[in-house]
Structure formats: C-alpha cells, structure tokens
Amino acid sequence: MNIQWYPGHMTKTRRMIAEQIKNVDAVCEILDSRIPISSRNPDVDELTAGKPRLVVLNRVDQADPQATKRWADYFRSLGYAVLESDAKGGEGTAKFAGAVRELLADKLRAYAQKGQVGRVVRVMILGIPNVGKSTFINKIAGRKTAKTEDRPGVTRSKQWVPIDRGLELLDTPGILWPKFEDQSVGLNLAFTGAVKDDILDVETLGCHLMSYLAGQYPESLVTGYKLPSLPERKEEENDIAYGYRLLETVGRKRGFLISGGDVDTERMAKILLDEFRAGKLGRFTLEMPQN
Ligand code: G4P
User: Fold this and answer.
1) Percentage of residues in the chain with pLDDT exceeding 90?
2) What is the pLDDT at residue 148?
3) Which of these, 63, 134, 161, 182, has the minimum number of CB atoms within 10 Å of its CB?
4) Distance 175 CA to ligand 1 centre (A)
5) 81 forms bridges with which residues in the sheet?
6) Could you tell me the distance, in angstroms and rounded to a whole number, from the CA of residue 280 to the centre of ligand 1?
C-alpha cells in the first residue's frame, strides 16, 4: 500500500510539539472513535511524556456505541481523561472545559493556594488529518477559527485559541500521521476516508471491508443489502477471496453486471465504501480493545 505521509512535515510537526510542550498544562489527543488505535500517532506518548492527557473519542455518531464504551474504559484504564464527542453535531463538546479542569484539578488547587487565581490553562490539541480537529476546535471555541495548515502559500504558524477567560488551546499546524507499518492501519484509514481513494485500489479495499463487516456486523449487510442470509465463509478463503465473493453477491443483486454476465465488482466496491462512510449501513467500529 503506497500512502504518502510526508516525512518532512512530520519532522517539523514533531519539532514544534517538542518546543511547545513546556508551554501547555495538558495535551488533548483527538481520535476517530471508529479506529482509536489506527488514528493515533504512537510518538505522541514520547513527545508529550508526563503531561496530563485528555483523549477525545470523536465521531461517536458514526461508531458502534458498545465499542465506544469499551474504548472509553480502555483509555481511562491507561490514566487518561476521556471525552466522547460528535463534533459535527455538537454532542459532548460542551463538556470539554469541565473535563480539562477536572483533569488538572490538583494543579489548579495548587495555583489557587499560591494565590495564582485566574491563571490561564493551556491545552495542546493533536490529531491526525480528517479526525475532526478543526470542527472540534470551532465547536468549543464557538466560532470559526482559521484552519492551521502546513502547505505552500497557506503556511500558518501555531495559534492560540481562547475558549474562555481561563482556558486556551494551542492548535498545532502540520501533519501527524500514525505509523503505516501494519497493513490494518492503512486499511482502517482508507475505509474511513482519512486517506484518499485514488492512492489505493478500491476493489481490494472493498473486499477487506466486506470481510470485516461480514465477520463483525453480519446483520448490517443482510439488512443493508436485503440478502436472505450471508454466504458462509469457506475454510480456504482469506479476507480478499471471501470479500470478493460478497462483492459479487451484493453486486449481482443490485444488477451491476458487465458483458458476459460478470459482476462489476469495482463499482460495487466504490458503492460499499461510499455507503459505509455516509453511515447508510449503520454505525461501526473497526478495531476493538484487546481486553
Ligand atoms: P481535520 O481538521 O481533523 O482535518 O478534520 P475536519 O474538522 O476538517 O473534519 C473533516 C470532516 O469530518 C468534515 O466533513 C467534518 O464535518 C466531519 N466531522 C468532524 N467531526 C465529526 C463528527 O464527530 N461526526 C461526523 N459525522 N463528522 C465529523 P466534510 O464533509 O469535509 O465537511 P462538512 O461538509 O461536514 O462541513
């Protein structure tokens, strides 16, 4: 899988985080709740070591609610504060300031004891592209803030976004990607649309997605594609082979045929991805916590 992830931009972003970490009280990491591990940059641990952390599970409106609960418990068990959010709909975002103050309660108490009342709390916001970072920031700031971007002509430096009199965010420009070494990370980012389809083979993606949904959420395929039942997976079939057979089954049902009576599986794969991303098949989480 050939995904462009701009190592130069990553280096710049890492440097900026390292420089700025001393200026913030906490770090807020925004994740896609459908893929909380794949949408995470593993270097964040090392870059932000020691700072209190708030994990925002964003896009909860698109994720499996049961799985989101498990993920929230998982991140809490690691010692992070957790906020579940649908930044687009505005669900959960109003709890941000309270969650930060709760996370920093000891520190704020210590400031108060030293007479530093009204000291501004600063939070660094991190997230991979398309996770909903700008939507989230705009929602909690209550207005549209300029998007921090890192591309020629639109280079913006870091920006401080005031939330209320006592709270400021540091929006980080640049690009922070997860590691693509594990194939499932690349697939998850592609399923959710975080990386563009034109750099990936849509049919292969469709096969993998079909296989995953058939394994974890079979009812969604039966209902969504009005199938009497799902074809059983044969022992010798891998994800691609089984997924391909499912694409054929559903494509045939929809009448996507090409000359010779074969199914246009590429068209079906495109439609599957579109419908999956638009939420037409339901709410899904693509990876689960280990425990
Ligand atoms: P980024 O800064 O992390 O790159 O992401 P951004 O906020 O630009 O969001 C990317 C897309 O995801 C936007 O959709 C945005 O509306 C949508 N989005 C963000 N958070 C959520 C969420 O919690 N739930 C859902 N369902 N969608 C979310 P778009 O199609 O690019 O723009 P728009 O037409 O929605 O404005």
Assistant:
1) 68
2) 55
3) 182
4) 16
5) 54
6) 17
